[in-house]
Amino acid sequence: MRANCSSSSACPANTSEEELPGDPQAQGSLELVFTAVSALMMALLMFSLGCSVEVRKLWLHIRRPWGIAAGLLCQFGLMPLTAYLLAISFALRPVQAVAVLIMGCCPGGTISNIFTFWVDGDMDLSISMTTCSTVAALGMMPLCLYLYTRSWNLQRSLTIPYQNIGITLVCLTIPVAFGVYVNYRWPKQSKIILKIGAMAGGVLLAVVAVAGAVLAKGSWNSDVTLLTISCVFPLIGHVTGFLLALCTHQSWQRCRTISLETGAQNIQMCVTMLQLSFGVEHLVQMYSFPLAYGLFQLLDGFLIVAAYQTYKRRLKNKHRKKNPDCAEVCHEQKSASCKETDSFLEVNEGAGAPGPSGPADCHRALEPTSHLASCE
User: Fold this and answer.
1) Residue 322 contacts residue 342 (beta carbons within 8 Å)
2) How far apart are CA 260 and CA 237, in angstroms?
3) Which of 320, 310, 321 is nearest to 119 (CA)?
């Protein structure tokens, strides 16, 4: 089914026979190869990230899903509402507003799992949230789109890419399940796989960003309004996600995780839905938005990771100056000076509010997911 505006006045722009530039057959072949390679690399990456997931902690999130519930509230509560308010505030045309709203209604993307690893977030919660939001998208995407698009008088309902959602679930759950099994059976080998996967993740993000921009270079337009929204939208998602997690008394580690999960959307799902729901004349107006959102999403993620790693390094050096023997103490006994670091970087799963509720040594403080190097 294709969704079109009910009147020509609602969609005044680009009613002529305007087409996406480039050779369709060649571009289609390139996109097919690019999609296949990206899916394979993403599956391998999720396998490596699954090696950081512990069955006990994963079961704890399932039994007490407060973190998952907060993440879903951000994903399908705050993000669609933010998209709607941005579309109204910037007075977008209906066809452009729908593109922004579709992006806000999409589930979380796997890119958030990579960034969560780099900021020492809760990988068990991150992967659980990505999986649960993808499953919830089967019902929440149609519901949110129905509620928010009623005022735009669309002639037909939008096409939900259920097949794409199913493929995303398969590419997410199966590799992660293998990774969890490897971590359970061979914990030492899983740490090596995890380090390799973390480095491969950075390369994958760079390749996807460059290749995506090159393949769709003909689809970019000079609409400053859409570029502005694509810049501020993920930032709003990160900030509101963090604040909501803070208000629900999540730990610092979970706050970072929920923040990254909220601002990182599934770009491929948004593009697929636009292609299924709109004609070429409308795609010209809206195709650049998900691409720009994806690039700004990557940029914001790298900035957050850089800020966190800089802060972590400075805090680590600060405690080294206070206690020159920290490296030895961390391996032998609990250090009182390292407890202050714990309040920022470590999470106590039994605590109800951000920060620790018990002592922790410097090694744990600097290794909240137990896969980073100890005090050097």
Assistant:
1) no
2) 8
3) 310
Q: For residue 221, which amino acid is it?
A: N
Q: What does the alpha-carbon distance between residue 270 and residue 168 come to, in Å, rounded to a whole number?
A: 12
User: What pTM does this model have?
Assistant: 0.72
Give the angle subtended at the CA of 54 by the CAs of 50 and 55, to the nearest 5°.
105
- How big is the CA angle at 287 (ends 88 and 22), to the nearest 5 degrees? 155
Question: Is 345's pLDDT higher than 90?
Answer: no
Can you tell me whether residue 165 is helix, strand or coil? helix
180-186 long-range contacts, Cβ below 8 Å, gap at least 24? 180/50, 180/51, 180/53, 180/54, 180/55, 180/58, 182/50, 182/51, 183/50, 183/51, 183/52, 183/53, 183/54, 184/55
Mind listing the pLDDT tens digit for each residue in 125-158?
A: 988 898 888 889 989 998 998 888 887 766 556 7
pLDDT of residue 325: 61
Name the residue among 324, 326, 360 with its Cα closest to residue 341.
Answer: 360
Phi and psi at residue 144, in whole multiples of 5°? -65, -40
150: DSSP letter: G
Query: Taking 80 as the threshold, does the pLDDT of residue 121 lie above it?
Result: yes
Give yes or no for a contact between 361 and 330, defined as CB atoms under 8 angstroms apart.
yes
* Cβ atoms within 10 Å of 2's Cβ, excluding its own: 13
With 0-12 / 13-18 / 19 or more C-beta atoms within 10 angstroms meaning exposed / middle / buried, residue 134 is: buried
More confident residue, 326 or 299: 299
**Is pLDDT above 60 for 24?**
no
Contact 148, 154 (CB under 8 A): no
- Output b/e per residue, 236-266; b: 16+ Cβ within 10 A: bbbebbbebbbebebbbbbbbbbbbbbbbbb
How far apart CA 299 and CA 181 sit, in angstroms, is 33
Cβ contacts of 203 within 8 Å, gap of 6 or more: none
Distance CA 261, CA 250 (A): 14
